Amino acid sequence: MSEARKIPFRNPGWAGNTGEFDLTEAQVRGDEYVGKRPPEGGHASGASTYPYMLAERDPEAPIFDGPFKERLEKIRSRYPDARSALLPALGMAQELRGYLSPETMEQVAGLLDLSPAYVRGVATFYTMYNKRPVGRFLIQVCTNISCGICGGDDVLQAFLNNTETELGETSEDGNFTVIEAECLAGCGFPTTVQINSRYYENVMPKDVPEILERLKAQGE
Amino acid sequence: MSDQQTPNTVTFTLDGQEVTVPKGTTILRAAESIGIKIPHYCFHPGLSSPAMCRLCLVEVEGWPRMAPSCKETAQDGMVVFTNSELAQKQRTGVLEFYLVNHPLDCPICDQSGECDLQDYVFEEGREHGRGREPKRVLGRDDFGGDVLFNGDRCVMCTRCVRFMREVAEDERLCVVERGNRAVIDTFFEEGLEGSPYAGNIIDICPVGALISKDFLHKARAWDLDRTPSVCPSCSQGCNITLQVRDDLVQRLKPRENLEVNGWWMCDFGRHNYEWMNRTDRTEVPMVRGQEVGWADALGDLLQALKDAKESVKAVTWAHAPNEEMGLLSGLLAELGGGEVVYRSPRTEGEVPLPGFPLLARREDLAPNVNGAEIFGFRRVGDNNSQGGLDELAGHDGVLIVVGDPIEDYGEDFGSKAELYVYLGSYQSKTASNAHFVLPITTFAEQEGTYTNVQGRVQRFWPGVRSPASARPGWLILGALVAELTGTEAPVSADQAFAKIAEKTSEFGGITYRDLGPRGAVAGKPAGVSGD
To answer: Whole domain around residue B317: which residue ranges?
Structure first.
C-alpha cells in the first residue's frame, strides 16, 4: 500500500491579502448602492433581507425598540402570520446582540405571539443562529467531504491551537470562536474557511497564524 | 362492499382485496377498516400526519416510489401492496435505522410489552444490526409533572409535540437541534408543570421515551389486567381502562370514545386512583354488632323495615352507580316514600381541552351527579362533600346510608334512629350506631353504569376482586325491593338496569346491549365511534 498512487494535487495555499480585505463595504458596493443604512430598514420588501453585522454587538441591547420595532413591523407586514416572520426576527436579534440567549428567544416569542418552545425549536434547528456568545470573529472551518479529504481537520486543529480555544469556545480576549461547518460550497478551493461574512479559500495549516494576526490587527 | 359504490366513495385494491371507503380516507385508515395493520409511529388518529416516520410506506402499482399511507388518500383503481417484498424490505431497513441509536434497554424500560418499536422489530426487524459505531447518548430529562423523558429511546415521531400544539394548544414541547442531535425538550427549564392534559403524551408515545413517574417500575405491561371502565373523578365520564395488578389498580389509561373523550383524559383523573386500593373495607355483614350470613342479614333487615313505623330518610353519594341509586329510590317508594339526599364534591371552573371541545374536567368531581338528579335526589353539603346531614344525623326514623362513608360526622351519627342501615364499602365511625352494616363493592369491583354530564349512560366492568363477602349495592337493594313487591330480584347488573329503566323515562328503552362499551344517550341512537 505504500506504493499507492499519489494524486497529483498541490494546494496552492491561501493567496494572502489580495487587496480586497482592506476594502470597506462602501468601497466594494459604492456609496450610492450601500447608502446609509437606517436601523428601521428601507422598504418592507428588503427589511428582512438586511444582512450586515454590527461591529459592536451588545448582548443587552434593547431589541425591537424604536427604529428596530419599526423594522420588525415592516417584516411582519410581508407575511400572513407571525410564525413566518420568526426567522428574520431572530436574525435581527442576532444582529444586535450577537447571539440568541434564552431571554432573547422568549422576548422574540412574546413579540410575535408564539410559544417560547416553538422559537427554541426553530432557533436550534438553524446552525447560523448562535445559541452561545461568539467572539468578534466567528471562524467556521469546513470539514465536509472536499475540504475533509484535503486536510480540513488539520486546518481546524491549527485554528484551535493558534487561538488556544476548544471547539465552540471563545478565546479569552473575546476575539475568536472556532467552529466546524458543514459544506460552505467552496469545494473547488479546499479548505474553505468562513470568518464572519468573508471566505478564505485554499487555507492550509501554515496560513493560519497569518490570518489570525491580520484579524487581530483588524479588531483593534 | 364494492356494490355500494356512490360518488362519495372510492374503490381500490389493497393486498388483493377490493375495498370501498369514503372519499378522502387515507390508505392507512382504509387498511385498518379491513383489519390490515400498517406499522406507523408519527400517525395518530387524533393528530395531524406529518408523514415523517417513513414506516407506513406502501407500494402503489405504477407509482415511481413508495407512498406514505398515513397521508396518501385512496383513489379509484389504485392497487396497493402493504406486504410486498419491497414494502417489507423498506420497513426492515427503516427499523434498522431506528435501532442505530436506540439503547435496547427493554429489560428496564416501562414501555416494554406495549412498545411499538419492540413489536415492529420483533415482526419485521433484522436479526442483528450492522452498526459498529458507538451509540449517541442523550440521557434523561425530567419534564415536570408526571412526565419523564428518555431521549435515547425516542424515535422522533413528534406525536407529543403535535399533541401539545394541536390538542392541548399549549405549545410547550419542541424538537431541539436537528439530525442526529435532535431531541424533544421544553423551553429550557419551563417544563410541563401545570399543563392539565400533559399526561396524554405518555400514552401516545409509541416507545418508552416518555414515561410516567407515577408508574415508573411499578409493573410490567404484560402483568396488568385491563378492564374497560369509566373515570370516576368528574362528571365528564371519560372512558378509561383500569390497569390492575395483584388486585391493586396501578394506573388509569384513556380508552377511545369519540363522543366523550376522544383518546384523551386529564391528569387529575389519571392520578386519582389510589383510593380504589383502600384497605379499610367493610368485610362481612353485621347485624347489631354480630357477624351474620347474608341470608340472615337480609331476612332480619326486611323484617325490620316492615316493622319500622317512622319516616324514612336516605343518603347516598354521586359515586353510586345508576343501578344502586335507582333501586334505592325504588326501595324508598315501597317503604312509603321519603327523601334521598346526596353529596358530591365540586370545584370552581372547568378545565377544557381546547383541541377536543367535548372534553373538559367538569365542575362536579364525581361521576354520577346527573344520575342522582335524574332520580330526583336532593343535593346537600358543601363543595368538599362535607356537612349538610345534620337533619339526618339526629333523625329518629329509618336512616339508610348507601355508599357515602360520611367521614366528616362523629360517632353519634344516627344514634337516635329507630333503624339505621349502613350499606358501605368503607369502615366509618359514623357506622358505629348502625343496626345493619352491609359491605358493598366499590365501582372498581362491580358492573354498573354512570350517567355523565351529557346524559350519556356508560357501562363499567369489574376490574378488581372485592372482599369475599361484599356484594354490589344493587344486588342488596334489588333483593329488598323484590321481596317487598313480590317480584323477581335482579341477579345481574343488566337486570337491575332493566328494572330501573322501566320506571325512569331518562333511561327508557336502553338496555345494556345498546350501551355496549361506548354508552348511549337515551332517545338518541347509539353513537358511532372508532374501533
So the answer is: 286-521
